[in-house]
Design brief:
Elements lengths: L2 H14 L1 E5 L6 E3 L1 H11 L6 H10 L2 H6 L5 H12 L7 H8 L3 E4 L1 H12 L3 E6 L3 H10 L13 E3 H4 L6 H8 L5 E6 L2 H11 L2 E5 L8 H5 L10 E4 L2 H10 L5
Helix pairs in contact: 2-3, 10-11
């Protein structure tokens, strides 16, 4: 009997029962809401400052509704048009380009960690408060960032779940996959806390790419940390260390 092969097979089987679950914004994708607010303000009818437009955008509750699947892409763009300048006819392409200014590119080091986790035999998944329009843009611009490598690995998006983190429905969808262990990487404490305290996950709060101007950050501003089963990673190196602490060797 090849004992080495048996051990390797057992390790592979055990690793396949562990899910490394990645948020997208500020974890796999660098955000830049300041540019979005600045460019939208330039188009506004009443000469809003970027800060004034940010306040109006957040007050309009567009992203929470869009991300929860309560608006179509067309409805979101129409409301964004009215918010910017109801007297100016911006095309769908112009509005989509403006929306795309909210992010600048994939965070390649973390995308690479996701790939390494897969190659080491772990399941990897995506778990993001996002909308159908953004997912279309992400798939076109950043296919490696969106890769989960196996059809059986989860891609859980809020607009499909009809609910945003940290509400339970998205988390319950992950639970349906039946993984024995979930290690969840996110940039918002309230999201991590829900996974740890309500579903028994391990959590990693990843901080180096946090965008304080992000609209959804104003909605989920609770910074209370879990009392156990989580780590804070203030760098990519600390993210690797935290994953290893929770048994994911990358």
């Amino acid at each position: 009997m090849n004992l080495g092969g048996v051990v390797a097979d057992e390790q592979k089987q055990q690793r396949s029962k562990t899910l490394a679950l990645f948020d997208i914004g500020a974890v796999l994708l660098e955000l830049d809401y300041s540019t979005f607010f600045r460019e939208a303000a330039k188009l506004s009818a009443d000469g809003k400052s970027p800060e004034d437009f940010k306040e109006a955008y957040i007050a309009a509750n567009l992203e929470p509704r869009f991300h929860a699947g309560q608006m179509s892409s067309g409805s979101y763009l129409n409301e964004l048009q009215r918010l910017i300048n109801p007297g100016r006819n911006l095309s769908e392409e112009e509005l989509t380009a403006l929306v795309g200014m909210r992010y600048t590119g994939a965070i390649d080091e973390v995308v690479e960690i996701k790939r390494r986790a897969h190659e080491a035999g772990y399941a990897v998944g995506l778990f993001s408060t996002t909308c159908e329009l953004d997912v279309r843009i992400f798939n076109a611009r950043y296919p490696e960032m969106m890769e989960t490598f196996r059809p059986s690995n989860p891609r859980i998006f809020s607009f499909n779940a009809g609910s945003c983190k940290p509400e339970p429905p998205m988390y319950q969808r992950v639970q349906e996959f039946g993984f024995e262990r979930v290690i969840f990487i996110d940039d918002k404490p309230s999201h991590i806390r829900a996974g740890v305290e309500e579903f028994g996950w391990k959590g990693i709060l990843f901080t180096p790419y946090v965008d304080q101007a992000e609209a959804m950050r104003a909605v989920h501003s609770d910074t209370t940390m879990p009392q156990k089963d989580f780590r804070v990673a203030d760098s990519v190196g600390e993210l690797i260390d935290a994953l290893r602490c929770f048994g994911v060797e990358v």
